[in-house]
Design brief:
By secondary structure, this protein is α/β, with parallel strands linked by helices. It has 25 helices and 26 strands. This is Adenylate/guanylate cyclase domain-containing protein.
C-alpha cells in the first residue's frame, strides 16, 4: 500500500464516520427525506379499501344547504344521535368540539332579548340539556382539543393496565384541553382527543398519537375510544419495553392488538379516499327517515360524525397526497386496526441503517482506493438496487419501514469523495502520461494510452508505422531576411497550423526539428487505416498553407510564398520510450523513418509537395496518385518508387483526373522506352494538369529532365480508382 493510498483510506473512513454520526443524530432533513420515501411507497401500493363496519356521517355541503350553516342547534345533533342509535350504530364518535353553550338554544336566545320576563326562561327548552339527555346511555364518544390556556383535563372513561415499565412519559404531552360542557362530559360513554399530529410541523398526517399524556395520566384518542366503546371494553392494555421506561410497543383494545411506535403513535396505512366511506348527514336526518340501504350501512358500524365542507377548515393531507376531511383519518385509524394491516418501523431499524452506512461506505472506500472507481461504482449500484428492493419487499409483504435513502446517499457521497481523492492524488501517474503526451496525441489516442498498462516503461516495440516528414522550402533564404524573433514567430505560426492536422487525424507528433516536423501513425496504439489518415493530414496541410499564404499570415507579401515538402512511407519501425530512466522521449527509429525523411528530401528533385512510397501507395486505393519515378534514396542500395499525391478519393474518381491518369501512364511508358512520343504525351499532360492543380505543371516540366528515373523499371501498376 502506497502512502497516498493510506491517506486515501484514512480520509475515506473519516468521511464514512462523519456520515454515520450524522445519520445517528437524525437531523430533520434526513427525517423529511425518509418520510417522503415512505409516502412514495404508499402511493405505489396503498392499502386496499375494504367494506368494514366503519362509516363517516358527513356534514357536507349538501347537509349545510339543507339545514343551514354550522354550527347546528344541538337539538338537531340530539336527533342525529337518536337516529343513529335506532339504526344500531355500535359507537357514535363526534369529531366536533362542545366547549361553549349552544348559542342557538331558545333559552339562550331569549335571555339576550331585552324586556323578557326572567321567569319565562325556565319554561323554554335548552338545546344543551336536550343533547345531554340524548347521549345518556348511548355509545357516544365526544372529542376534545388541545389548548395552551388553563389547566382543564377531561375525564378518562377507561382504565389502563401496563406490562413492563410505566409508559406514561412516552406519548406527546398535553398541557391543557378545550373544556367540555359538564353535562356532556358526565353522560358520554367515552372521551378522546381529536388531534391528529400535535407538535408535528409537517402538513402531512403520517402517524396519529393513540394517547396523550400529562406525565401521569394517559388520554386516548377519538378513534381508540370509539373502538373500545363499540366492543364494550373497559380497559386499555399497554405493553412497554422491558427495563426501558416511557416506551410503548403495543396497545390492546378488547380483541385487537395494535403495534405502535415508542411514543404510542400508529403509522397510518392509507387507502385512497372513497365515497363508500361517507353517508351524508342530510340522508340520516331526512324527514321521512333514512333509506334501508343507509340503515343497513349504519347497523353494527362505528360511526364518526364530522365535516368535509371546505369552509369549516378541517381538511388534512395524507401520505397519498390527497386532501381529505380530518374525520376520515379517525375512521381510517379504526379501519386499519380492524383489517390488521399495519405499518411499523422496528426499534432496530435505525441501528440497521446506521450499520449499513458504515459497512457500505467502508467497502466503497476500499474498492475505490485499491481496485478502481468503476468497480466501486458497479458495486455501489448493486448495493443501491439491493437496498431499494429489500426496503420495498419489506414494506409490501410485511409492512416494515426501512429507509433505503440514507445509506444510498451516504454511499454516493463516500464514492464521490474517494474517487475525487484518487483522481487528485492516487492517479497522478495517469496525469503525468497526459502531460507527457497531451501535446503530441489526439484526444482519442491519449485516452487509449492512458488506459494502457506500463505506458511509460522504457523500451520499444516493432510496429508497422506510417511515417511523415514535413520540411519548409527555402528556409535558409527566409531566415536570412528575418530577425531571430521573427524567425521564431514564423515557425510557430506555420508549425502550429500544420501540426494540428496530425493530431486531428489520430497521428503522433514525434518532434520538431528546426523547420521540420516528424510524425507517425499506428503507435502508441493501433490506428485503423493509418496510411489514409497520414495522407489526409498531408492534404489538409497543403490547404492550410495555401490559406496562410493567401491571407499573408506570415507578413511576407506576395513576393515570398512559403512552400513545404512532405514525405510519407509505410514500413516496420521500432517505437517506444527511448532515453534514460529519468528522462526519455517517445519516438520511432528504423529504416522506415529514414526512408520517409529521404522521400521528403526528394520533393525538391521531383518538384512536387507530397510524395509517398510505393508501400504507402498500395494502401491508398482510389486516391489521386501519379507515379513520380524510381529514385535513388541516400543510404539505399535500390531505387524506391515514389508517387505524387494529387488529391483524395474524390479527386481520384473525377473525369479530369482519370483522363490525366491515362495520359500519364502513356507518358511513363514512353519515357521508359525512351520513345520520342514522350514529348507529345508530356505536352498533353501539362495542358490537362492545369485544370486539376497548380502544382502539377512544374512537376511535368521537371519530369522531362528525370527520364532516367523511369528507365529500366517495370511498367507502373494501373492505379485507376477503386484498385
Amino acid at each position: 500500500m502506497t502512502r497516498a493510498q493510506q491517506v486515501g483510506v484514512l480520509i475515506g473512513l473519516a468521511i464514512v464516520a462523519a456520515l454515520t454520526i450524522l445519520r445517528a443524530s437524525d437531523p430533520p432533513l434526513l427525517k423529511q427525506a425518509r418520510d417522503l420515501t415512505f409516502d412514495e411507497y404508499q402511493r405505489i401500493a396503498p392499502r386496499t379499501f375494504e367494506s368494514l363496519p366503519v362509516k363517516v356521517v358527513d356534514i357536507d355541503e349538501a347537509s349545510l344547504r339543507e339545514f343551514g350553516q354550522w354550527p347546528w342547534p344541538r337539538d338537531r345533533l340530539a336527533t342525529l344521535v337518536d337516529r343513529l342509535s335506532e339504526m344500531g350504530a355500535s359507537a357514535i364518535a363526534f369529531d366536533v368540539l362542545f366547549a361553549e353553550p349552544d348559542r342557538l338554544s331558545p333559552r339562550t336566545v331569549v335571555r339576550d332579548v331585552a324586556g323578557i320576563d326572567p321567569s319565562l326562561l325556565g319554561q323554554l327548552p335548552d338545546n344543551d340539556e336536550i343533547f345531554a339527555q340524548a347521549i345518556t346511555g348511548k355509545p357516544v364518544i365526544l372529542g376534545f382539543g388541545l389548548s395552551n390556556e388553563g389547566n382543564y383535563r377531561p375525564q378518562v372513561k377507561a382504565g389502563f393496565a401496563f406490562t413492563g415499565e410505566n409508559p406514561a412519559g412516552a406519548p406527546p404531552r398535553i398541557k391543557a384541553a378545550t373544556p367540555l360542557r359538564p353535562e356532556f362530559e358526565a353522560n358520554a360513554a367515552g372521551i378522546g382527543h381529536i388531534s391528529l399530529n400535535p407538535g408535528d410541523p409537517s402538513a402531512v398526517v403520517r402517524a396519529v398519537p393513540l394517547f396523550l399524556s400529562d406525565g401521569e395520566q394517559l388520554y386516548p384518542n377519538l378513534a381508540l375510544e370509539a373502538l373500545r366503546v363499540a366492543q364494550g371494553a373497559s380497559t386499555y392494555v399497554l405493553a412497554g419495553a422491558t427495563n426501558v421506561p416511557n416506551t410503548i410497543t403495543m396497545v390492546k383494545i378488547g380483541e385487537f392488538e395494535v403495534p405502535v411506535t415508542a411514543e404510542g403513535e400508529l403509522w397510518l396505512y392509507i387507502t385512497p379516499d372513497t365515497a363508500e366511506r361517507y353517508i351524508s348527514a342530510k340522508d340520516v336526518l331526512a324527514q321521512g327517515g333514512a333509506t334501508p340501504e343507509i340503515k343497513n350501512a349504519i347497523d353494527g358500524s362505528i360511526v364518526f360524525i364530522g365535516t368535509s365542507a371546505a369552509g369549516l377548515q378541517d381538511i388534512r393531507t395524507t401520505a397519498l397526497g390527497q386532501n381529505v376531511p380530518g374525520v376520515s383519518l379517525h375512521a381510517q385509524t379504526v379501519e386499519q386496526i380492524l383489517s390488521g394491516r399495519f405499518l411499523s418501523r422496528p426499534d432496530w431499524a435505525n441501528g440497521l441503517e446506521i450499520l449499513s452506512i458504515a459497512a457500505m461506505g467502508s467497502l466503497l472506500v476500499i474498492l475505490t482506493t485499491f481496485v478502481s472507481p468503476a468497480v466501486a461504482l458497479v458495486c455501489g449500484l448493486l448495493i443501491t438496487v439491493m437496498a431499494l428492493v429489500a426496503s420495498w419487499l419489506a414494506f409490501f409483504y410485511a409492512g416494515l419501514l426501512f429507509d433505503p435513502l440514507a445509506p444510498i446517499v451516504s454511499g454516493s457521497i463516500t464514492h464521490f469523495a474517494a474517487t475525487s481523492f484518487r483522481f487528485l492524488v492516487i492517479d497522478r501517474e495517469r496525469r503525468e502520461v497526459r502531460r507527457a503526451f497531451g501535446h503530441y496525441l489526439s484526444p482519442s489516442l491519449l485516452y487509449r494510452i492512458e488506459h494502457t498498462r506500463n505506458a511509460l516503461r522504457l523500451g520499444g516495440d516493432d510496429r508497422e508505422l506510417t511515417v511523415m516528414f514535413v520540411d519548409v522550402r527555402n528556409f535558409t533564404e527566409i531566415s536570412e531576411r528575418l530577425t531571430p524573433a521573427e524567425v521564431v514567430l514564423f515557425l510557430n505560426t506555420l508549425l502550429d497550423a500544420l501540426s494540428r492536422h496530425v493530431i486531428a487525424n489520430e497521428g503522433t507528433l514525434d518532434k520538431f526539428i528546426g523547420d521540420s516536423i516528424m510524425a507517425f501513425w499506428n503507435a502508441p496504439v493501433d490506428v485503423a487505416n493509418h496510411a489514409n489518415k497520414a495522407v489526409h493530414a498531408a492534404l489538409a496541410m497543403r490547404e492550410t498553407l495555401a490559406r496562410l499564404n493567401q491571407t499573408n499570415a506570415f507578413g511576407f507579401g506576395d513576393e515570398q510564398k512559403v512552400g513545404i515538402g512532405i514525405g510519407i512511407h509505410t514500413g516496420l519501425a521500432c517505437v517506444g520510450n527511448m532515453g534514460a530512466e529519468t528522462r526519455f522521449n517517445y519516438s520511432a527509429i528504423g529504416d522506415a523513418v529514414n526512408i520517409a525523411a529521404r522521400i521528403e528530401s526528394s520533393c525538391k528533385e521531383v518538384s512536387f509537395d507530397i510524395l509517398v512510397s510505393d508501400s504507402t501507395a498500395e494502401m491508398l486505393p482510389g486516391y489521386a496518385l501519379l507515379e513520380a519515378g524510381a529514385l535513388a534514396l541516400k543510404g539505399k542500395s535500390m531505387r524506391t518508387r515514389l508517387f505524387a499525391v494529387v488529391g483524395d478519393e474524390k479527386l481520384g474518381g473525377s473525369a479530369e483526373f482519370v483522363q490525366l491518369q491515362a495520359i500519364h501512364a502513356q507518358l511513363i511508358e514512353a519515357l521508359r522506352l525512351r520513345s520520342s512520343s514522350s514529348r507529345r504525351f508530356l505536352r498533353i499532360a501539362k495542358l490537362q494538369a492545369v485544370e486539376i492543380t497548380n502544382g502539377l505543371p512544374e512537376f511535368y516540366r521537371r519530369i522531362s529532365r528525370r527520364a532516367d528515373h523511369f528507365v529500366d523499371q517495370p511498367a507502373a501498376k494501373d492505379r485507376s480508382p477503386g484498385i
